[in-house]
Design brief:
Blueprint: H1 14-32, E1 35-36, H2 37-44, H3 48-60, E2 64-69, E3 79-83, E4 87-94, E5 98-104, E6 110-117, H4 122-138, E7 144-152, E8 155-157, E9 162-165, H5 177-184, E10 188-192, H6 193-204, E11 213-218, E12 222-228, E13 231-232, H7 263-267, H8 269-280, H9 288-296, H10 300-324, E14 328-332, H11 339-352, E15 361-364, H12 369-386, H13 399-408
Parallel strand pairs: 4-7, 7-10, 11-14, 14-15
Antiparallel strand pairs: 1-3, 2-3, 4-5, 5-6, 8-9, 11-12, 12-13
Helix pairs in contact: 1-3, 2-3, 4-5, 6-12, 8-10, 9-10, 10-11
Length: 410
């Protein structure tokens, strides 16, 4: 039985309906472009007059531009519509060792991409990131920048406007949104890296066809994103999905979160490197990329380390499958290059957790790990315009940039 909390409900208004219809039309253009007004009306079920009014608004706002003319046996030739690829988003993938910056259009196509070493502390990062973002924006004066999206290896608390939990970054609590907004004059959206990958699947991958998905990101740590009924589950303080820090063995190795024997210490990239060192009794210094190269060259110990990693991933998936019962599980990580070898091991762990019925579909993400995170940050910025109810968070815009945009008519 669904319990309705009437104290938290706001009555629907005509503005609500317009926002929903606008989001429907904008998403249909995004997914089916180029598309005509007539086809939009047919697919959406909206009146042609309603579609025309929405399209006129979107063209005025520079979100949509007219494309090529269509051909019909008779009558007026339709004009096809498409998203304006002159609008752009700055995206940042913050990781413990390397941070990636990119510029994307609304379709998730990247126009530029750069990698820099991740600074040692948050205050230095705020300064260096602001400078890098400013340089990239200045290099594309013909683009209209909508905002900045940042994926972080931790959890962002929207109430406190701070990143609160970063066990592998080790910066403590920090504010990245404020300094970047102040320096750029653009709104900044932050999201956990696993949640960003889930958004990438829903927006740009096969995930939009599925209502209940679990996305597992395996890198320096292990993150889990939950999508239920096509909604990202955030939980209290944005902490939903921290399965990586559930202890599998309280007496196991020390985890970055301060606990022992967490799932992450057995199933992450660093765990695979540890397995390799243990098998050879060698000193540290090997990276996960080096381990993958060794495995590709046929190194038996490297392949065995990856298989142990896969077994640990599958073992941890049992608690997720039993507790969440997803329709599909998507894995993001460099290890998926060996999916033919590791995938069956993970699938066995998933099947073992199913009590009744079919097991969930298990597959690697179609995009590379870096692309998945970056595309997810694109979706973070765009979803306030493309969502069913449009929520406009303008952020801070510098007076100089606002005047420049007004002069250019953009």
């Amino acid at each position: 039985m669904l319990r309705t909390q009437y104290r938290e409900i706001q009555a629907a208004t005509s503005e609500t309906a317009r926002g929903i219809n606008r989001g429907i039309v904008l998403n249909l253009i995004r997914r089916r472009q180029p598309i005509s007004r007539a086809d939009l009306a047919r697919v959406s079920g909206l009146q042609r007059s309603t579609v025309s009014l929405i399209i006129e608004q979107l063209i005025r706002e520079k979100w949509v531009i007219p494309g090529p003319l269509g051909r019909l046996p008779r009558g007026r030739r339709p004009t096809f519509l498409q998203l304006n690829d002159r609008r752009a988003i700055v995206v940042v993938d913050l990781r413990p060792t390397i941070t990636t910056f990119a510029i994307s259009d609304p379709n998730g196509r990247f126009l530029a991409q750069q990698e820099v070493p991740t600074p040692a502390d948050a205050s230095t990062a705020a300064v260096q990131f602001s400078e890098k973002i400013g340089q990239m924006i200045s290099a594309y004066p013909d683009l209209v920048f909508e905002g900045i999206g940042v994926s972080v290896p931790g959890r962002f608390d929207d109430n406190q406007q701070r990143v609160m939990f970063t066990p592998n970054l080790k910066w403590g609590e920090f504010d990245l949104r404020g300094p970047l907004e102040k320096a750029s004059g653009l709104g900044v959206e932050l999201e956990n890296a696993a949640n960003a990958c889930a958004l990438a699947e829903v927006w740009f991958g096969y995930g939009e066809r599925t209502r209940d998905i679990v996305v597992v990101t395996v890198s320096e740590g292990l993150g889990v994103a939950l999508v239920s009924n096509v909604q990202l589950v955030r939980g209290f303080n944005g902490m939903a999905g921290e399965f990586g820090h559930v202890p599998l063995d309280p007496g196991g190795p020390l985890c970055g979160c301060g606990g022992r024997g967490c799932w992450e210490v057995y199933a992450s990239n660093w765990a695979a490197v540890r397995y390799y060192h243990e098998s050879r009794a060698t000193a540290g210094g090997l990276t996960f990329r080096h381990l993958l190269s060794l495995a590709e060259s046929g190194d038996g110990l490297a392949l065995k380390a990856l298989e142990r990693m896969g077994e640990a991933i599958g073992r941890g998936m049992r608690m997720i499958v039993a507790g969440v019962a997803p329709e599909e599980i998507v894995f993001v990580g460099e290890f998926t290059r060996f999916w033919d070898r590791i995938g069956p091991v993970i699938e066995a762990g998933v099947r073992a957790a199913v009590l009744v019925g079919k097991p969930p579909r298990v597959r690697p993400a179609e995009a590379s790990p870096s692309t998945a995170r970056l595309r997810g940050t694109v979706a973070m910025v765009l979803q306030k315009h493309f969502g069913p109810v449009v929520e406009r968070r303008q952020g801070v815009r510098s007076k100089g940039r606002a005047k420049a945009l007004a002069r250019s008519g953009r």
